């Protein structure tokens, strides 16, 4: 996993970044794990390296003042869900929060072998890990791909009702705001520009006006260049203000 080696951050660099971030006026800071890590990997050497990378990265993220370090819940073999779950639980126990930086688990799109793609699955995982500082990230594309009807007002309401019913309302700290290239329930993780995918403008309007979202950080991971991201952010801001 050479591509996932962590850069060394000096105290001077960390302090300078903290100061610059504080002066920027930006909101909470979240760092995302490299996509190559997998906390449910059935390959022992790869799993061990994934844990080591995340442990180092959480420390680095804490040093620059990050609020959270985001890692996918993981995916194992499609025929071994219990073992995949066990490996993810063990891995998350091995990478606790450091300083002011919490570990944030992101729900996946429900592809074969996914450990946690729904709120009940996340609740089961969080209960097994037993860490009160473990937090949750919900990606709108992933939720839609996993079957949540975010393209309908009633579906958005039902989604958040399930969040609360699962006991995770106070664990949700971050939304990845992405439209979905494929249809609801496709279990395919392909992001689309806001309003141009399956969730659509109406779906994001409903999501952005939920009380649970008002104080959360939203991050776009839409395709394209910086100007594309700027357009997506502008669309979200317009919908939130309507």
Overall description:
The protein is built from eight helices and eight strands, in the order αβαβαβαβααβββαβα. By secondary structure, it is of the alpha/beta class. It has a six-stranded parallel sheet. A two-stranded antiparallel ribbon has the order 6-7. α3 packs across α4. The longest helix has 20 residues, at 44-63.
Structural class based on helices, strands and sheet pairing? alpha/beta
- Strand order of the main beta sheet, please? 1-2-3-4-5-8
- What's the CATH class, please? Alpha Beta
CATH superfamily: Divalent-metal-dependent TIM barrel enzymes
**Fold-level CATH name:** TIM Barrel
Q: What percentage of amino acids are in beta strands?
A: 5-15%
The counted number of beta strands is: 8
Our measurement of the CA-to-CA distance between the termini, rounded to an integer number of angstroms, reads 45 Å
Which bin fits the share of residues in helices? 40-55%
Estimate the global geometry from the Cα principal axes.
globular
Mean pLDDT: 95
Order of helices and strands: HEHEHEHEHHEEEHEH
Oligomer: single chain
Radius of gyration, in angstroms, nearest whole number = 18 Å
* Count of helical stretches: 8
CATH architecture type: Alpha-Beta Barrel
Q: Major β-sheet, in short? A: 6 strands, parallel
**Poorly predicted spans:** none
Number of domains: 1
Element layout with pairings:
Layout: H1 11-24, E1 30-32, H2 44-63, E2 68-72, H3 81-93, E3 102-106, H4 119-129, E4 135-139, H5 140-145, H6 153-165, E5 172-176, E6 179-180, E7 191-192, H7 200-208, E8 217-219, H8 226-241
Parallel strand pairs: 1-2, 2-3, 3-4, 4-5, 5-8
Antiparallel strand pairs: 6-7
Helix pairs in contact: 3-4
């Amino acid at each position: 996993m050479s591509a996932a080696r962590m850069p060394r951050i000096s105290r001077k660099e960390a302090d300078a970044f903290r100061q610059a971030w504080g002066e920027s006026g930006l909101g909470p800071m979240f760092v995302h794990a490299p996509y190559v890590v997998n906390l449910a990997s059935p390959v022992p050497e790869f799993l061990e390296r994934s844990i080591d990378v995340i442990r180092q990265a959480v420390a680095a993220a804490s040093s620059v003042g990050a609020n959270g370090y985001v890692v996918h819940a993981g995916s194992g073999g499609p025929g071994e869900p219990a073992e995949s779950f066990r490996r993810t639980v063990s891995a998350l126990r091995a990478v606790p929060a450091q300083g002011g930086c919490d570990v944030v688990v992101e729900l996946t799109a429900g592809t074969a072998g996914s450990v946690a793609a729904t709120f009940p699955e996340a609740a089961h995982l969080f209960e097994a890990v037993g860490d009160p500082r473990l937090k949750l990230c919900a990606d709108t594309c992933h939720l839609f791909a996993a079957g949540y009807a975010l393209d309908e007002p009633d579906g958005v309401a039902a989604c958040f009702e399930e969040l609360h019913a699962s006991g995770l309302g106070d664990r949700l700290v971050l939304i990845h705001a992405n439209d979905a290239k494929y249809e609801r329930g496709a279990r395919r993780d392909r992001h689309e520009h806001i309003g141009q995918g399956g969730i659509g403008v109406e779906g994001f309007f409903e999501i952005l006006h939920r009380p649970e979202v008002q104080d959360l950080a939203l991050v776009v991971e839409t395709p394209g260049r910086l100007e594309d991201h700027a357009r997506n952010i502008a669309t979200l801001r317009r919908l939130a203000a309507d």
